[in-house]
Amino acid sequence: MSSVFAEKITQYISDYRLLLRKSLNQVERMNRLKALDLKSVTIYSDDLSLYNTAWKILKDIESNGNIPDQGYYSYSGLEKFYTELKTFIDDYTISNDRIIHRIQHTSNLLLEVIQMVSSPGFQHTDQLQDKLFECNKSVVCYGSDDQKQLYLGCLERLSSINRAIFTPVLDHFSEQLEEHRKAA
Hints:
This protein has helices at residues 4-23, 26-36, 47-64, 78-90, 102-118, 126-142, 145-161, 163-183; strands at residues 92-95, 98-101. By secondary structure, the chain is mainly α. The chain folds into two domains: 4-90; 102-183. A two-stranded antiparallel sheet has the order 1-2. Strand 1 and strand 2 (98-101) form a beta hairpin. It starts with a helix and ends with a helix.
């Protein structure tokens, strides 16, 4: 069974091939397909290959697209295609050799943390603290602003309950946020 990601990227590849067919002569089109490896069946073998192919297509459009501002060819569909593909692919990233949806990944982490600290018999351990340090990094890298705020509020509440475990985690999260803001 293929993922939603794979189905969507496969459709984008098909659409791009069609755009090339409409806008280039056969020799140019075949050269472009070969350069992008779009005729190979191996690009469909896994999500990682599809992800890399999508980025190749975006880079190809950036370097070869030449979308005119005016005139008959100004709306060829290429600009809209580029924007849609870029928006879609920006929602994903590679983590541990897997393609993950940034927001969904962060939501799952937040849910896991909430369940961990809310469970009966919850233990404040170094293992929990280590898990939260890892979660900090993921929330900062992949989370939306709303998710970051939610997580920060959760850590602040937990820190008031158990300073020994949660204050270092809260401080680490704040440092990670600041570093991320400076890098952006």
